[in-house]
Amino acid sequence: MIALTSPYLWYTTRATGLVTLVLFTLVVSLGTLVANRVGGTAVGRFELNELHRTIAAVACAFLAIHVVTTVIDSYVSTGPLAAVVPFVSSYKRLPVALGTIALDLMLAVWASSLLKARIANASWRFIHWFSWLAFAIAVVHALLAGTDARSGIGLAVVIVCVAVVAGAGAWRFAARPTRAAGRTALSPLGGEPERASRPVPRRSEPTARPAPSADGPQRAAPAFPRRPRPGRSR
User: Fold this and answer.
1) What does the alpha-carbon distance between residue 208 and residue 226 come to, in Å, rounded to a whole number?
2) For residue range 139-191, what is the model confidence (pLDDT) as tens digits?
């Protein structure tokens, strides 16, 4: 059984933190492609959507491992409360608090995605902007709290991630498409505009009745001749 002070916990924390930063770089970049409605015949918008969601789920899994290994490692006294409440950790209070704030923002974005069908599109879009702020705070957290992001390969990875997200953000605003009312990037066919654009089916006009003749209304001839009543001659 691995002890709570094993260096493997510390190695896992460092590795999952760096991997989480790379994965969230992909999530934010793919989210920019989805928001700008990029898609063609080779890779459609639906495929980009699903890739964006799948990588986001994997990034949340690595983030959970990063938080759990940090909390259970008894070598540093962070505590489980410091994972969700900022500025309660006795170990590197500010760097750990920045990581907690980034985690809370990511949880808000994740919850809004789960509740997308029940909240307004404007609210969902506003909450999703928190992903950019969470990424920026996570980078500062990695530089202050981590030991690998300050030099060598770790620093190079952080610089590349920042450059990719910065380029995606600049392109997001430069090539921002005109957004239709009531639509979001993840639901390109909104309900109300879709129904409003459909042609209203016309009712079939009733068949015109024949005009009455001058001699008065005429009765239609019976289908079968009438039988004579008994007791009367024809």
Assistant:
1) 31
2) 999 999 877 777 788 899 999 999 999 998 888 777 666 554 445 554 443 33
pTM for the complete prediction? 0.69
Q: Is residue 134 part of a domain?
A: yes
In a domain, 189, yes or no: no
Range of the domain at 55: 7-177
- For residue 68, being part of any structural domain is answered with yes
Please, which residues bridge with residue 187 across strands?
Answer: 184
Distance CA 96, CA 93 (A): 5
CA proximity to 63, closest of 15, 127, 3, 5: 15
Count of domains forming the chain: 1
Domain assignment of residue 187, yes or no: no
How far, in Å, CA of 147 to CA of 17, rounded?
11
